[in-house]
Amino acid sequence: MPETRQKAIREHFEKVLLSAQSEKFHYKLYFRDLKNTPNAFALPSGQIIITDKLIEMADNQQEIDSVLLHEIGHVVHRHGLQQLIHGSIITIAITMFAGDATAIEEMVVALPVFLLESHYSRSHESEADEYAFKQMVKLGIDPIYFANMFGKMVEKESSDTVEKYGEFLSTHPSSPRRMQRAREYSAKYFHSNPAQN
């Protein structure tokens, strides 16, 4: 993605989306080209990574905003940290029973990989969704854009490109209920839904 496009999205992220955040986190937005994979994820530190392909799939800035606010929700609710702790506890428990002290060293080496490959539970996804919807309403962004963006991923899931888009879908489980929830917010707080037309 061109540097000018990255700069515009990053400035919007900092000036608009972060302006509505009351939590004391330090966010940093990164762009990556991961072999045409549409994906976005957040690390416990507040680093948010979004791929070029996901941005390419978005029809407008509002759809990108819905994804970024969802990822901010993961940071605010410390989902990444919870996953990290959960994985560490399991590894330590295995080490205690197996008696293999070298497993601790392997765990430390594997932490970055764990963070990148961890899959949030459906409850974490729902919590991040709710956070995103509330922030969108606060910023005057119709949550229908979340439903529209998510709908594209559901459509990809049902097509013959499942293998190509599987990574995104595995970390963001498709669910008509999630899209319906976004529509409920849209109907409640916005009189019209031009993004549906």
TrEMBL record:
Enzyme class per UniProt: hydrolase
A GO biological process held by the record: proteolysis involved in protein catabolic process
Presence of keyword Metal-binding: yes
Record GO terms (molecular function): metal ion binding; metalloendopeptidase activity
The entry's keywords: Hydrolase, Metal-binding, Metalloprotease, Protease, Zinc
Keyword Metal-binding among record annotations: yes
Boundaries of every Peptidase M48 domain copy: 4-185
A cellular component annotation (GO) from this entry: membrane
Stored CDD domains: M48C_Oma1_like
Cofactor note: Binds 1 zinc ion per subunit.
UniProt-listed Enzyme Commission number(s): 3.4.24.-
Domain of life: Bacteria
Family: Belongs to the peptidase M48 family.
Protein name: Peptidase M48 Ste24p
Species name: Candidatus Thiomargarita nelsonii
